[in-house]
Write a structure and sequence with these properties.
The chain starts with a helix and ends in an 18-residue tail after the last helix. The chain is 38% helix and 0% strand. The chain has a domain at 21-55. It is mostly helical. The radius of gyration is 22 Å and the shape is elongated.
Amino acid sequence: MALRERQRGRRGEAEAPPAACHANNGEADRAGEFHKTLPHDEFGRVSNIGDGRID
């Protein structure tokens, strides 16, 4: 790691671009929209059991 940083500094290279798997491809936006549709409890946490009552 230190060797790579020294080589980069010596040659004046910019840091490598992020890997393609970390690129923002809109997946996070879709996940955020889905999250908004889930039921939340009074504390703002996602609740997968609704209001907790057993009918």
